[in-house]
Design a protein that fits this description.
229 residues; Rossmann fold; 2 domains
């Protein structure tokens, strides 16, 4: 029976494929304040701006390619039962070949009703336009979990973390909650590998390993170590 490996991934792994992260030092995301484009209040004020912002993000994500970090996590499915829990909204994990991906913060290539959140639709183009409606007549919006909104898949992600035999944290500062709290669900003594150049703050616990490298270096390094065990 394969051991279960759960990987929590964040913006750092996508940044290495050229996708901008929202944690820029100037507080802007692609020249927009986070409050303008990633909150329900921003959507209420200017839905046209929000739609165009994510239309541009979709085009950028479509042009990006999975990197060796994404591909190595997918290849680990040969030896492990792998579950990816990602804070990223792009589809790079899927395109790299990962078969079980939980998108905590939603998916860029889905739209949903602005009134009925259960009405979610796969997107066949890179754009949602103002005036494009769900089947019940309400404006479509990106299927993204914005700041201030509930995280519907958090309970599932917590369960996966709690049943991991190995837990990886890749390219995330562990500053964005509730996702950052998933480390606390990992059973004590389970090996945790934290792969990030910045060495995110984590409470000391047994079997904690820091790999202060970017994902493209650290993930293959840890994968080789796990295969050798």
């Amino acid at each position: 029976m394969k051991k279960k490996l759960v990987a929590l991934t964040g913006a750092g792994i996508s940044a290495e494929s050229g996708l901008a992260t929202f944690r820029a030092s100037d507080g802007l995301w692609e020249n927009h304040r986070i409050e303008e484009v990633a909150t329900p209040e921003g959507w209420a004020r200017n839905p046209a701006l929000v739609l165009e912002f994510y239309n541009q993000r979709r085009a950028a994500a479509r042009a990006a390619r999975p990197n060796i970090g994404h591909r190595t996590l997918a290849e680990l499915e040969q030896e492990f039962e792998v579950v990816i829990v990602t804070q990223n909204v792009d589809d790079l994990h899927e395109r790299a070949g990962s078969s079980r991906v939980i998108h905590l913060h939603g998916q860029l290539f889905e739209s949903r009703s602005s009134r009925h959140e259960e009405l979610v639709y796969p997107m066949h183009s890179d754009r949602i336009e103002l005036g494009e409606l769900c089947e019940k007549g309400h404006q479509l919006r990106p299927n993204i979990v914005w700041f201030g909104e509930a995280v519907p898949l958090l309970e599932l992600a917590a369960y996966e973390a709690s049943t991991a035999d190995v837990f990886l944290v890749v390219g995330t500062s562990l500053q964005v909650y509730p996702a950052a709290g998933l480390v606390d669900y990992v059973r004590r003594g389970t090996p945790i590998y934290i792969i990030d150049p910045s060495r995110p703050p984590v409470s000391h616990r047994p079997n904690l390993h820091f790999v202060t490298e970017p994902a493209t270096v650290g993930v293959p390094q840890v994968a080789a170590e796990l295969r050798a065990q």
